Amino acid sequence: MIRGIRSLPRTVWLVSLISLVNDAASDMIYPLVPLYLASVLMAGPKALGLIEGIAEAVSSVLKLFAGALADRSGKVRAWVIAGYGIAGFARPLIGVVTSWPGLLACRFADRVGKGLRSAPRDALISLSVEAHQRGLAFGFHRAMDNVGAVVGPLAAAALLAADVGLRNVFLLAVIPAVVVLVLAFAVPEPERPAASPKEPLRWKLADLPAPFRRYLVALALFTLGNSSNMFLLLRANELGASATRTTLMWALYSLVAALLSTPLSALSDRWGRARVLTVAWLAYAIAYLAIGLLPVADWALWVAFAGYGAVTAALEGTEKALVADLVPRARIGSAYGWYNLVAGLLLLPASLLFGEIWSGVSPFAAFAFGAACAFAGVVVLRAWVGPTGRAAD
C-alpha cells in the first residue's frame, strides 16, 4: 500500500494537498453552521434544508457544464484555480451575515466555487493515473481531504475553547483560503488532445455510454436519501451535544474516513467497484438507522459517527473510480460533470424531504427514509452492474 501511494504522480499529491488545506478551512466552520443558524440567526431544520439544497443544486449544475467545457477545451487547470478561489473567499463571509438569507448567499457562493472545480479536478486525477491505480488515487485524494476535515474541526474546537466567538472563527477561515489559491497555481495541466473549437459542446447524457447511464440511476436512488451531513450535526446538537463536542464528533468522523479511504477505495481495484459499493451503501443504511434511534448524545453517538466515517471512506473514492471505468478518456470531464450533477442536484429534494419528515413526523422517520433509499440503490446497482465494477450489458 505504501509503495503504491509513493508511486502516485506529483499531480495527485499536489491536488490532494490542496484538498487537505481547503477542507481544513471548510470544516473549521462547517460543523458550526447548524449551531450558528439556530442560536444566532434563529432558524431551524426547514431553513437548513432549503439552504443546503439550493446551494448544492446550483453547484451540481455548474459541475456538469464545467466538466463539459473542460473536455471541449482540453484544459482543466483554470477551472480548478477559479473554483478554489471563489469558495475560499466566500466562506469567511458567513461571519458577517445577520440573517439566514445572508447565510444562503455565502453557501451559494461557496458551492459555485465547488461546482466550477469538482469535475475538472476529478478529471485531472483520472487523467494522471493508470486504470489499475484509479481506486488508489481517488482513495488517497479523499483520505487527504478527510485529514483536512480533521484539522479543521480541531482548530475550531481549540478556538472555541479559547473563547473566540463563532463569527471570528468563520473570519479566520480566510487564512487557509490564501494557501489553497497559491497551491492551485502550481497544478500542472495534464496532456490530452483538445476537441476542435468548432465542435458543439457535448454535455448530453445520451452521448455517454449506456452502462454509465445505468450506474447513474442507482446513484440517484442512493443520493435521494443522502441529505446534507449538517443534519447529522443538528441531530447531535438535538441529543444534547455541545458545540465543542459536536465539532469533535465531526473530527472523529473525518479522522476515520481519512484513515480508511485509501485502503477501502484501493480494495475496489482488486475486488470490484460494485462489490465495494454494495457493502458501503448497505452499511450507510445501518448507520443512518442507528443515528436516528439514539436517545441521547452518549458514547453510542461517538461510535455512530465513527461508523459513518468508515462508510464514507468506502464509497467516496470507489464511486468516482467507477465513473472512469465506464467512459472513454475524451469524455471524462463530462462524465464527472454528470456524476456530480446527480449526486448534488438530488441533494435539494433529499434535504427538503429530510427536513420536512424531521419536522412533520420525527427525526427517526427522516433517517429511516434515508436508509430505505440506500437499500433501493443497492438493489439497482446489483441488478445492472457486475461484481467487477463494469456495467452488465
From TrEMBL:
Pfam families attached to this UniProt entry: MFS_1
Transmembrane in keyword set: yes
InterPro entries assigned: MFS, MFS_dom, MFS_trans_sf
CDD domains: MFS_MJ1317_like
GO molecular function, one term: transmembrane transporter activity
The keyword Transmembrane helix appears for this protein: yes
Keywords for this protein: Membrane, Transmembrane, Transmembrane helix
Transmembrane segments: 76-94, 169-188, 215-236, 248-267, 274-293, 338-358, 364-385
Residue ranges constituting the Major facilitator superfamily (MFS) profile domain according to the UniProt record: 11-389
Name of the protein in question: Nitrate/nitrite transporter NarK
Organism expressing this protein natively: Dokdonella fugitiva
